[in-house]
């Protein structure tokens, strides 16, 4: 099978797993969804790749719903790490190391940590250790993003926040930072804590800028990923510069496939818009 063909098959399997997680979150699907995804797959290797691609989001029904992690699910995750092993050592954070492997290492850690937590086992770094560092917002960009706290523009509504985001185009650091945080959206669940979560708590306005900028650019996947962090901060009682509920509803109307729908459902559950 060619590399392009493999990627297409893996992506299709990941979409199927995301749909199963979405159904389980809504109480439609059975709870042993990860193991069932592998067992019913025509291509078991693609199904194992899908576990790595969807990662921690596959466990949204366990964290935000009534699903219980079955031993078969934990075994399927372990098998996925065995077939598609992460690097032996975690890559260094940017700029000392490349961004993509580092983000992948954080996402792998989130999957491993959640499986260990849900299974009630020790050693959440056995499958993938925690990387070092977190996305860094420079002092200059952070000051611009916190303008509302220092006499800057009022960003209490999505429309005004969007205007503030577009007016800050000369400062690209918060833009890159928010995109990287969006790529780490599987970590945006209440069961985890890490330096990445600390970075999110330290800069809610930068996240709001990133989400509204992505909406204005009609980049709805990026907007939804970043909004996951805003929903988590709201659930933690962090004061936000915009109301995330209309933002989530706006994103829900744009669809985008099972993985985007799962992101939106997770955000809605974090915001109390859906009951377990």
Give a quick set of tags describing it:
single chain; 276 residues; mainly alpha
Model description:
The chain is an all-alpha fold. It is 61% helix and 0% strand. The chain has helices spanning 3-25, 33-39, 44-54, 60-64, 71-83, 99-119, 139-145, 158-167, 173-183, 195-202, 204-216, 220-235, 244-252, 258-270. The longest helix has 23 residues, at 3-25. The protein starts with a helix and ends in a 6-residue tail after the last helix.
Proportion in β-strands: under 5%
> In total, how many beta strands?
0
What distance separates the N and C termini? 41 Å
Query: For the residues shown, what is the average pLDDT?
Result: 85
Low-confidence parts, pLDDT < 50 over ≥5 residues? 140-171
Order of helices and strands: HHHHHHHHHHHHHH
- Helix proportion range: 55-70%
Count helical runs.
14
Radius of gyration, in angstroms, nearest whole number: 18 Å
Q: Biggest β-sheet, characterized?
A: none
* Mass-distribution shape: globular
| Helix/strand class | mainly alpha
């Amino acid at each position: 099978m060619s590399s392009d063909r493999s990627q297409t098959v893996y992506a299709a399997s990941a979409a199927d797993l995301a749909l199963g997680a979405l159904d389980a979150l809504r109480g439609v699907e059975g709870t042993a969804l990860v193991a069932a995804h592998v067992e019913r797959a025509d291509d078991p290797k693609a199904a194992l790749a899908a576990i790595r691609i969807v990662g921690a989001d596959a466990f949204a029904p366990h964290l935000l719903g009534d699903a219980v992690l079955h031993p078969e699910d934990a075994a399927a995750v372990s098998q996925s790490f065995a077939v598609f092993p992460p690097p032996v050592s975690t890559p260094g954070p940017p700029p000392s190391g490349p961004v993509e492997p580092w983000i992948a290492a954080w996402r792998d850690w989130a999957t491993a940590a959640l499986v260990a937590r849900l299974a009630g086992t020790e050693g959440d770094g056995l499958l993938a250790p925690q990387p070092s560092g977190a996305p860094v917002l420079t002092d200059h960009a952070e000051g611009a993003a916190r303008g509302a706290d220092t006499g800057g523009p009022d960003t209490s509504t999505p429309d005004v926040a969007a205007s503030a985001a577009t007016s800050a185009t000369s400062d690209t650091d918060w833009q890159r930072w928010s995109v990287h945080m969006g790529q780490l959206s599987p970590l945006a669940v209440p069961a985890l804590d890490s330096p990445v979560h600390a970075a999110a708590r330290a800069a809610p306005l930068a996240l709001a800028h990133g989400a509204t900028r992505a909406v204005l650019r009609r980049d709805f996947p990026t907007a939804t990923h970043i909004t996951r962090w805003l929903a988590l901060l709201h659930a933690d009682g962090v004061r936000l510069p915009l109301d995330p509920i209309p933002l989530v509803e706006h994103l829900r109307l744009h669809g985008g496939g099972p993985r985007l729908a799962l992101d939106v459902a997770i955000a809605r559950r974090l915001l109390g818009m859906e009951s377990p």
